Amino acid sequence: MLWGVYAVGYTLYTTIYDDVFKIRGVYGFMVLDSRGNPTVGVRVTTQGLGVGIAYAPSGASTGKHEAVELRDRGEEFGGKGVSKAIENVNKVIGPAIKDMDSRRQWEIDHKMIEIDGTPNKSRLGGNAIVATSLAVAKAAASTLEIPLYMYLGGYTANTLPVPMLNIINGGVHAGNKLDFQEFMIVPAGFNSFSEALRASVEIYHVLRNILKNRYGLSAINVGDEGGYAPPLENISEALDLLVEAIREAGYDPGSEVALALDVASSQLYIEERNVYRVEEKELSRDEMIELYRELIDAYPIVSIEDPLYEEDFEGFVELTKNIGNKVLVVGDDLFTTNPERLSKGISIGAGNAVLVKVNQIGTLSETIEVVKLAFRNNYKAIISHRSGDTEDPCIADLAVGLGTGLIKTGAPARSERTVKYNRLLEIERSLEKPYYPGFTVFPAKPH
Ligand code: PGA
Ligand code: ZN
To answer: Which of 120, 182, 217, 302 is the most core-located residue (most Cβ within 10 A)?
Structure first.
């Protein structure tokens, strides 16, 4: 008798308990990104009164193999409207995932993938899918009343990421003549995230003064990711400026603050002649590799992203053999956060790190799969923003929750960038024992 009462009570309890995670509502709406373009916002609620809101970011130097953003291509917003994507959230995705358990991320994501039915999420829209996917995770975390990083990484998650801050912008993110897209400082030689960020902010402001005094006021205009976009033409000039700013701010270039590059070389590649256009010269793959070797010898560089164009897996193998023991060789456009492309890279030794952008692949569960795949094969994973981003801080939680130890989220300026840094400061403050991995996340300490 007693057992019977217990059994009924327990069943009732778990039913009620599980029900709180059920998705009650999915609501898509339009917001603006940091470039002033429309993007997709999604609000997911659960029966247990959990609420998750997420915004889709948007890239400019997008890889060929990325999930596709659905844009209206109509009159409104110069064709960049997202009303079709939002309609897909409200009329297709919402009804399909209603009543599903918000903790069943994989199942929910794969439901969307199945309905979409295309290899690049172009029917429902990568923007519709990614915002929903992230909002589902946030709603589950909110139902549990725990932060997103803890929901993803458990109660013991405590690794803060080393930030790679893009403080000089070039390429398609800026109106200058710098061929490489991103010149980053990497404050790895500190004991905590907050100290590392403080140093970065100080360097950012010193650099501002140097640029203003040397090149005039227009040199401190900022590019898409909050870095300065000075009228430089020369790659080594930009790197010299970073070293100078680090020193002048009172830090040691190398042992405290290292450098990193995102070449975004698909933008420099001329397919017909199989060459890269760099500083008015045409360079072959071998000459590019030689250029990187020289740069690594001359500067305290710890990471180079997209050094070769997005289809050159073999070139990445060659380069990784050459410099992979010294720096991270990062695939962004090469891998596009795609488990299949990363697997291919791993099997031949192309690169030793993957840049992770949730909207490149389109769902949180595929993103987690990529990070796990990387870790299982001794590749590093760098959680990344997009050049068009929003005030959604969730990649900060992703970096801590997935324990990547690395994040790339722009300069310490412009709210769509600082919101991520501020969230990391908040997480660091709230942790019992935060851990800052420093140089351990790179193949070697720079000289
Ligand atoms: P994107 O640039 O967001 O414009 O693609 C960022 C990057 O290339 O890392
Ligand atoms: Zn990149």
So the answer is: 182
pLDDT digits (tens, 9 = 90+) for 82-130: 999 999 999 999 999 999 999 999 999 999 999 999 999 999 999 999 9
Distance of CA 271 to the CA centre of its chain: 27
Which candidate in 66, 69, 182, 225 is catalytic?
225
Regarding pTM above 0.85, the answer is yes
225 is catalytic: yes
Contact by Cβ (8 Å): 143, 20: yes
Q: Which residues contact 175 (CB under 8 A, 6 or more apart)?
A: 223, 229
Q: Is the minimum distance from the CB of 412 to ligand 1 under 6 angstroms?
A: no
CA of 387 to the centre of ligand 1 (A): 5
Token digits for 91?
A: 């009329």
CB 103 within 8 A of CB 142: no
CA–CA dist 177, 50 (Å, integer):
48
Find, among 123, 103, 113, 90, the residue nearest to 22 by Cα: 103
Active site residue 237: no
Q: Is the pLDDT score of 440 beyond 90? A: yes
Q: Token pair of 211, please? A: 């640029």
Angle between helices 193-215 and 235-248 (to 10 degrees): 120
State if residue 45 touches ligand 1 by the CB under 6 angstroms criterion: no
User: What is the β-pairing status of strands 353-356 and 380-384?
Assistant: parallel
